[in-house]
Amino acid sequence: MGLAVAESLSRSGWRVSIVDLNENDGQAAAQKVGGIFTKANVTVYEELAHAFGKTWKEYGRIDFVFANAGIVERASFYAKQEETADGLPPSPNMLASRVMFDGAIATVYLGLHFLRKNSPAGGSIIILASSAGIYPAPNGPLYTASKHGMVGLTRALASRLWAENIHISCICPGAVATGLMPAEAFQQMNQDTFTPLEKIASVVQSLLEREEVTSGAAVEVVGQKHYLRWRPEFCDETMEKCWDSFGGTSAIRDGGLTTNWKQ
Ligand SMILES: NC(=O)c1ccc[n+]([C@@H]2O[C@H](COP(=O)([O-])OP(=O)(O)OC[C@H]3O[C@@H](n4cnc5c(N)ncnc54)[C@H](O)[C@@H]3O)[C@@H](O)[C@H]2O)c1
Known about the structure:
Blueprint: H1 2-11, E1 17-20, H2 23-33, E2 36-39, H3 45-59, E3 64-67, H4 95-117, E4 123-128, H5 141-162, E5 166-173, H6 183-187, H7 197-209, H8 211-214, E6 218-222, E7 225-229, H9 237-245
Parallel strand pairs: 1-2, 3-4, 4-5, 5-6
Antiparallel strand pairs: 6-7
Organism: Capronia epimyces CBS 606.96
GO molecular function, one term: oxidoreductase activity, acting on the CH-OH group of donors, NAD or NADP as acceptor
InterPro entries: NAD(P)-bd_dom_sf (IPR036291), Sc_DH/Rdtase_CS (IPR020904), SDR_fam (IPR002347)
């Protein structure tokens, strides 16, 4: 999906910087879009920061950051573990959340830094979350937790960043046939539900064009349709008051940022 978005942006005149752990695919992608490539692991802050720094040096500004890196879970969270000699289970395999939670947060953090350096300051961040950021996937609990985290991160950051002319949203697709899983795994799924890569790229383009009314949204994408999902309604007035005393939260919106944050 990262490549589809890069291609679409490059066709619209954007200069693109590709960052990926996979050097061969990353180089080929950069060549395809006439951009630059930096090999970096999003779980290694210094590598990711270097990639941003290199992009800034090359282009002199960064207007849009697409936090896209992802993997499927590498180990079952449910697997019963053998105890080690001290009677404790071994440390869990948390690569999925290191990539899609910690890595995505680091990407957003660095994005914020560099968008602020622009003159005038500002720009856009889009996180590629997942519909597993809205609905729970029992076969991917860490994937689900990470993607729910991205929806929360988007909703939490949007109103404060708005004041700095920085817009953030996240995309929550259903199934998209990519390299994320082996082709056979995708073939076993209901083919009527798939979202084409072009649709993901066109959602990104339209979010960038309408960021004043989409900042803070989690955008569900399924088939050829997409839906803007805002913060859920409060369960009752007491909870709403509770959140007022926390300092407020961004309001549910229907076009245009309204916020009740007390700055
Ligand atoms: N394919 C789907 O059905 C689907 C649905 C919803 C959300 N997503 C999300 O979309 C995003 C893009 O995935 P995709 O489906 O295009 O899969 P993909 O495997 O084609 O692309 C993921 C890219 O992330 C890179 N990557 C993985 N770990 C990395 C790391 N530690 N550091 C740097 N790069 C790393 C991979 O090398 C790869 O190029 C992921 O975050 C995924 O969770 C995918």
